[in-house]
Amino acid sequence: MKKFIDIELIGRSTINSILQMWGYFSMLKDTIIHIPSLRITPVRTVLYKQLYFTGLQSLSKLAIIGLLIGVVIITQVSNIVGYNAVLIGKILIWVVIRELGPLLCAMIIIARSSPAIASELGAMKINNEINFLKTMGINADIYLILPRIIGISLSVMIVTLYFQIISMFGALALSSFLFHTPLFQNFTIITTSLHLYEIIVSSFKSLTFGIIISIISCYHGMLVQSSITEIPQAASIAVTQSLFYIFLIDGIITLITFL
Amino acid sequence: MIKLVDVTLDCFDSLNFEIEEGSVCKIIGNSNTELKALLDTILCVKKPNSGKVFLFNEEIFTITNTAAIKLLSNVGVVWRYGGLISNLKVWENITLPIYYYGIKVQNLEEKIVDLCSQFGINEDYLPEFMSKMPAHLTIFEKKIAGFIRSILMYPDIMIYDTIFTGIEHGMMDNLKDIIMKFHSEKSGRISVFFTDEEESLKNIKARTIKLNK
Question: What ipTM is given for this predicted complex?
Answer without folding.
Answer: 0.88
